[in-house]
Every structure is written in C-alpha cells, then in structure tokens.
C-alpha cells in the first residue's frame, strides 16, 4: 500500500511506501490523475516505480524533486525504459541526476553557455550501444521540450554507462580523458599521428573498453606476454602501465601485468605502423 505525498503532474506522483517506510516515484500516463495528498492507493503495476535514495550524486532527492520540472523526470524515465529494453539490468538511481542534468542543460542553452564536450567522439566510440540509446533520448527531449541539444548526447551516454557499470558519471568521463591523454603522449613522444576515427584509434579504444570489462567482471586473460613486451616493447609497456594505473585509480580495480602487456602490444603496433 502507498500514500500520496505529492502529485507532481498527471503522469508523476511522489508517494510513501507504507510497508518499507520509504519514498517512491511513480511515472506513467495518468498515474497522478485525480489523486490527492494523503490518499492511499495500491501499487499501479502498469507504470514505472522508482525507490528513492535520500542522497544522489547531485544532492538530496527531496531538493531535486522540488527543483526539477516533472517533464524532465518523464524524459529521464523514457531514457531508462529504453536502456532497460536494450540492456535489461539498469541502475534506476540515475533518474533524478539525469533529469536534473537535462533540465540544467536547457537552462545553459537559454543562457547561451557552451554545451560542447571535447570528448564526444571518444565517448561515442567507447560506448557505442549506450550512445545509440542517448541519441534516442535526444529526440525525446526535442519532442517533449522543443529543444535540440546534440552535444548533450555524450553526457547522457555517460549516465547510461554509469547505470550499467556501477560507476559514477565523473568516473566514466575520466576514462576517455585518460585514453585521449595517453594517445596524445604516444603521438608526441613517438612522432606519429593517430587520427581520431581511424582504424588504429578505434582498435585501441575497443581494446581498452574490453580490458575494462574483463577487469570489472574479474575475467582472466589467457595471454601471457609479460616478459616479451618488457624486453621487446619496453616503452610501450611503460605507457601501457601508466594507462592501466590511471584507470585503476578511477575504477578502483587492479589491472594485472598480463593486461598491461597485452595493451603494450597494441601501443607498439601503433608506434611501428
């Protein structure tokens, strides 16, 4: 049984779960129609239910609910629904932070603030499936608000990725930053040019993406080229070690020397091309 705490609009209701003694948001067509504060009601199975944490990455839940127009909660709900259709298991705690981010991006647009993300292409290449959902989210935003915010697709991608990987959005953003810095170092010190979008660039990004997935899922790498790469690819091994060290700090997960050596082979291939 639930009790209405606040009717946000016809499609959104803030309620209290009387059994669990916690707040929830119901989002779905007509869920708030004719409902009154303190009115008890049964679980409406046909709409989406979100159990709220007291604190989010953007601050207390109650403050976000009060500050964000419910239309952005509906938009975030639609993006989460699309993500669940694609990926099944999604951390729905991104609802309020994602809604707040979308709302603030439109405020910034109206204030003519710069919305560009210099790592948009890296994010698209690293998280292609999440990016495809975010593009659909952009169309939902345009349909519901009239605003087109193309550069926000990469940020929405990071929210979706964080909901799949149990990481903070800030951590997800640091991954392409670390990779870009590492590639720029390889270019500078080895006198090579690795064009973004080229086969070499894409292959390196894809390898790092798979490497992070293996580490996150505790999968063991069969290849053991540690001594070979240390001897024959010493510089590449050094760079790979620094990349893995930075990623390890951001993700909170250790990278084995096997992973370092495997990444070093990819870097060496780029240096020798």
Automatic annotation (TrEMBL):
Pfam families: CAT_RBD, PRD. Residues 67-169, 170-273 form the PRD domain. It comes from Eubacterium callanderi. SUPFAM superfamilies: PTS-regulatory domain, PRD, SacY-like RNA-binding domain. This is Transcriptional antiterminator, BglG family. Keywords: Repeat. GO terms for molecular function: RNA binding. Signal peptide: none annotated. GO terms for biological process: regulation of DNA-templated transcription. It comes from the Bacteria. The keyword Repeat applies.
